[in-house]
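thread: overnight batch results

M.L. [08:02]
morning all. the overnight job finished for the chain we discussed friday. pasting input first so we're all looking at the same thing
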Amino acid sequence: MKKHILLIAIFFNFLFASTLNLSITSSPSRINPILSNDTASSEISQWLFNGLLKYDKDANITTDIAKSYYFENETKLIIKLREDVFWHDGVQVTSQDVLFTYETILNPKVFTSIASNYKEVESVKALDKFTIEIIYKKPYFKALEIWLIGLLPYHILKDDKDLMTSKFNKNPIGTGPYILNSFKNASDIILTANKNYFKGKPKIDKIHYKFYPDPTTSFLMLKQNKLDIASLTPIQADRQLNNEFYENYQIIETTSFSYAYLGFNLNNKKFQDKKVRQALSLAINRQELVDILYFGHAKVANGPFLPGTFAYNEKVKPVVQDIKKAKQLLKEAGYNEKNPLSFELVTNTGNEIRVNAAQILQHQLKQIGVEVKIRVMEWQAFLNTVVHPRKFETVLLGWSLALTPDAYPLWHSDSTKIGRFNLVGYKNKQLDKLIELGSTTVNREKLAEIYKNIFTIISDDLPYLFLFIPNSITVVNKNIKNIEPTFIGIFHNQIDWIKEDKEKN
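M.L. [08:03]
and the structure it wrote out:
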């Protein structure tokens, strides 16, 4: 009798289990929070791991594995852990895991892009089983942000000799709302709900990532109602949807955390005269770029930080095309019909919008007598032979920003060194001082004031021509309830989502 009841219970659980169907275009390389550099790895890792802290729906920092935190003074942070958090294998999370994660990030044998975030940390110490003391060398504006990174399990990895090649990266054990059920390269990925999750078991039982390496296939599956959530390109959103699609899906459009830019090599004499950079900026019709490339699904960019962040300066207005003034500035810089300004613009294949943007810029700049030669290269060749060694006149690229912008990697003079991100060779002593002051400012209002000044200086100096900020266009199955779109997206409350149609999985 008991056996029959158990079988019936299993049958009904199976029958009414809900599945969230998503797509993925490439296989994760390492499902490990400190090594997840590619998009696929980061996406899967977010379901499996938790940090001490996290962003709430309004992009404010709040607790996650941490129960509480406070600054004893400007350089000493105390974090107390929850005592009800367990790894997927049932082992309790303790201070030892925090200490191990920190030490692993700093391990010279572990190649992680986030190590520089911890350069201002003096020490990390476990005061007891659930209390961590962090001492900084000086006040640090990202003192909290660096603890958003997912924790690693000490009890599993303590004897692992090489994290870079560890089996853990393909079979991770985390603390998150979902557990990895199956994963093979170039195949589907299945995650199952963690019934022991410390914030409560997710209401959707399974996440099924369907492997569609071709975005066109993903769009076709979406139109056949075989995906619950996916992204759309501007042309898909604007030209390729029918009434049936709108009956099944809601469209959520938000500003993305990225921008496109034309970067000058400032070591090249052509671009050292600010009048030249100003002339090129005034010749560009950014709204035309937005309208043609994105069908309006983008915004004009006017500086290095995005609208909605504390660093954005609303007093800086977008540049409006002014052909007459652009021609005058070029003339003052020594260029005319007999001596025209010409340069090469390099960008990459695999990004149709970027290539089209280069052609539109070429056309717009021709109106002031500037000759632009376009070179399009395969991505890896572009990075290795043009971008990293700084062998270009101008490049057309994009940049993604964190919720807490950090000006140091892109704009500080020290970041002009090979291997760092100040690709254009921009140096400004006044800006360096502001960036350094900002890195030691923990008061958010003062930090915002400093960063608004940084925004103004860069926007005025034009080491880049900031072009446009694409929108993120997400479609969601209308059968999924409790979705709350916010500034940071839709997944912040996923464990509360309910998928109302019951289907066999």
